[in-house]
Amino acid sequence: MICYELPLNERIRILLRLEDLFDKIDFFSAKETSFEHHAALVALFEILDVTSRSDLKSDLLQELDKQRALLDSLRKNPEVSEEALSRILLDIGTTFRGLLEIPGRIGGHLRDNEWLMSIKQRMSIPGGACEFDLPTYHYWLHMNPEARQTDLRSWIMPLSPIRDGINIVLNLLRNSGKSFHHTAAHGVFQQAGAEHQAHLLQLQIDNELPCVPEISANKYALNIRFIPTQPDQKASIYEEDIPFKLTFCSL
């Protein structure tokens, strides 16, 4: 099965983008070649761009405080594991304090680094990070891999509370899901009413089916159509019945 996720508001959209970028940094920074460390730095700069356009820190603090209150009210519920509840409440408290300790804007330590900002500026130009444009960056890319990894960790570590907050919110969101099984008749599925109103939709289909879903949703209706993946196929809809699983996630 392959899962497609569709955020239904801008806040969740930003969290999903940042989750993807942090995962890329993890992957590339753990490698040793200069090309992979360059990719890690590109992802780090993209995180800086995404966070600069939103009040992410305040949003995370508000959401964590809301979830802490909701979870704390479950302490006397016999159907809830006291150990698991205490663990998530501890994680929320630790992350909340970490977010409060971030001084000023997210990524301020990166913006204060003139060398990094000069690289970021050149990277906005296609092919702008060549050795003749950035000789000091070329030198850094030829340093010992362990030295580059140490630098990458020092630039990423101050962002840890942001990542932890994102992970907590998205895990709670995904675990709140209510799932339903449907079939798209001739590649099309429509649903009206308030049932689909959520913060995040998850759609799972067999990964061997040669089609992908196109999802559009608003407060009045949910529309899904499955389109072929073959680039030479002219049909706009995969015209076969497609079974799929649809999950509505809300905080």
What does this protein structure show overall?
The protein is an alpha+beta fold. Strands 1-4-7-2 form a 4-stranded antiparallel beta sheet. The chain is globular and about 60 Å long.
Features:
four-stranded antiparallel β-sheet; three-stranded antiparallel β-sheet; 19% strand; 251 residues; alpha+beta; 9 helices
Question: What would a concise description of this structure say?
Answer:
The protein has 251 residues and is an alpha+beta fold.
What topology does this entry show?
Blueprint: E1 2-7, H1 10-29, H2 34-52, H3 56-72, H4 82-100, H5 108-111, H6 114-123, H7 135-141, H8 145-156, H9 160-175, E2 178-184, E3 188-192, E4 200-205, E5 211-217, E6 221-228, E7 242-249
Helix pairs in contact: 1-2, 1-9, 2-8, 3-4, 3-9, 4-9
Give me the Rg, rounded: 22 Å
Q: Any low-confidence stretches, pLDDT <50, length ≥5?
A: none
**Helix/strand order, N-terminal first:** EHHHHHHHHHEEEEEE
DSSP E strands, number: 7
Q: Major beta sheet, specifics?
A: 4 strands, antiparallel
Structural class: alpha+beta
Q: What is the number of helical segments per DSSP (H or I, 4+ residues)?
A: 9
End-to-end CA span: 25 Å
Strand percentage lies at 15-25%
